[in-house]
Amino acid sequence: MSAIVLFDGECNFCDASVQFIIKRDPKGYFRFAALQSDMGEKLKKKYLIPEMLDSVIVIDNNTVYESSDAALAICKHLSGMWKGFYLLKVTPKSFRDQLYKIIAKNRYKWFGKKDSCIIPSPDIRNRFL
């Protein structure tokens, strides 16, 4: 069983986040698709994900997680101390999402933007949809 992470393929921060997840997901629980890709578009339609949603999306067991819930769903499956961040789930969602929105809103300004999505290396290519 695996979960899918939909990410902004043009965002440097999002690209770095995908690389971060891959390094801390030795069992390969997560697979990835850029929101802008054909597969990303298909998954957005299938799961009725709004087009203008400014968030990473996690699809796990046919459940869609967005914003801070998506980030925590990722942490839950990472190795090492990162798994402990899932405990932040007890923090009120409104507070977590507010913090998430600040980062999401400023990600291009703080981290930059690409003209196109990354091309994964051969050793991890099978994890990209």
UniProtKB/TrEMBL annotation:
Coiled coil: none annotated. One of its GO terms (molecular function) is protein-disulfide reductase activity. It comes from the Bacteria. InterPro entries: DCC1-like, DCC_oxidoreductase. PANTHER family: DUF393 DOMAIN-CONTAINING PROTEIN (PTHR33639:SF2), THIOL-DISULFIDE OXIDOREDUCTASE DCC (PTHR33639). This is DUF393 domain-containing protein. The lineage of its organism: Bacteria, Bacillati, Bacillota, Bacilli, Bacillales.
